[in-house]
Specification:
Layout (H helix, E strand, L loop, with lengths): L1 H35 L4 H6 L5 H11 L5 H13 L14 H36 L4 H15 L2 H15 L23 H7 L3 H38 L2 H8 L4 H13 L1 H17 L1 H6 L5 H10 L3 H29 L6
Helix pairs in contact: 1-15, 5-6, 5-9, 5-12, 5-15, 6-9, 7-9, 8-9, 9-11, 9-12, 12-15, 14-15
Length: 342
């Protein structure tokens, strides 16, 4: 037990030391790609017809007239001080302020979407694996293929057109009614803040506005979990200890839920954590399709406006999240499965 703890501690330390290297690599790549793409942020701010003197003054003010290496070193120096910079537009709003304003919406959408994905994916995958070579198994396979292959933006637009526009069941385009005051609170998560203030009406309203985008995101992601659960659970149900449990007369449903499913979920936990981390920074299509005021939508806007500091700062922020979540998932897997050694 002691040797395993030492090995795990060594692994965690090594991963923590490698995390800054990964963030630095991503930062450097984003920095170079932004400046290699055509277009000028000064033109995006002032317009292409602005006087050249005004453009030159703004370029000097923003430091864009300096050499590439000088800009890069200046940015790295600020990054070491946890200064992610300020937006070229948005009245000089800092990147940390942008994160504080938009990240709660992304977290709320991602959490609800992952809950839907986990429940649907694990349920469908378990049923398909428990009844092999049956219509349930074929239906599970078809569900996994369709959800994995369906484009997010197309599925989102279809659901909006049918459920929101034609049937009027769901609202679109915002997190909360424009005529109502959103829940006050320290977190910015409307569901949590409304519960903290014991306001069930606001909780229901926030959940109602969150339902359609989270269902869209969750259903399409659930196919990944369905395929993973189905394949791993089928292999687990053929294991020797499962056959021994059947020989002792233990009911099949108890074997699946109490024994086989636990072991089959070990790789699913890894996929679940990494998918959650990637969605925090990559749910751009969902947020843009539903006009969801999250951080991924703000990143899309910054890219279209060539807002260098915002794009760079948000990419560093997302890279840090992915690095921390991946380390946490590895540690969780090590505690769940004692066979894992590092």
């Amino acid at each position: 037990m002691s040797s395993r703890s030492n090995a795990l501690r060594y692994y965690v330390i090594s991963r923590l030391l490698l995390a800054p290297l990964m963030i630095w690599t991503i930062t450097t790549v984003v920095f170079l790609l932004l400046r290699a793409t055509p277009g000028d942020p000064v033109d995006a701010l002032l317009g292409p017809r602005a006087p050249e003197a005004a453009k030159a003054a703004l370029r000097s003010q923003l430091g864009l007239d300096q050499s590439l290496i000088t800009q890069y070193l200046t940015y790295l120096g600020k990054l070491l001080q946890f200064d992610l910079g300020s937006s070229l537009g948005s009245q000089g709003q800092s990147v940390w302020q942008i994160i504080g304003a938009h990240f709660p919406a992304t977290v709320e959408l991602t959490l609800c979407g992952m809950i839907v994905a986990a429940v649907v994916g694990i349920t469908v995958g378990s049923l398909a694996a428990s009844f092999p070579n049956t219509p349930l198994d074929a239906g599970g396979r078809l569900f996994g293929i369709l959800t994995y292959a369906t484009p997010m933006y197309w599925f989102g637009m279809i659901l909006q057109l049918v459920l929101a526009v034609q049937l009027g069941w769901f609202p679109i385009g915002t997190r909360f009614p424009l005529s109502a005051t959103p829940p006050p609170g320290p977190t910015g998560l409307y569901l949590l803040d409304s519960l903290l203030h014991l306001n069930l009406a606001q909780f229901g309203t926030a959940l109602y506005y969150l339902a359609l985008p989270s269902l869209t995101l969750g259903i399409l992601i659930s196919g990944v979990f369905e395929r993973m659960v189905r394949v791993n659970l089928k292999q687990t149900l053929r294991a020797d200890y499962v056959e021994a449990a059947r020989a002792r007369g233990i009911p099949e449903m108890r074997i699946v839920t109490a024994h086989a499913l636990k072991n089959a979920l070990i790789p699913v936990i890894t996929i679940l954590g990494l998918t959650f981390a990637s969605l925090l920074g990559g749910a751009v299509l969902t947020e843009v399709t539903f006009s969801w005021p999250g951080l991924a939508n703000r990143l899309y806007l910054a890219i279209s406006e060539r807002d260098y500091p915002v794009v760079q700062g948000l990419m560093v922020f997302f890279a840090g999240i992915v690095a921390l979540v991946s380390i946490a998932i590895d540690i969780l897997n090590a505690y769940i499965d004692p066979r894992i050694r590092y």
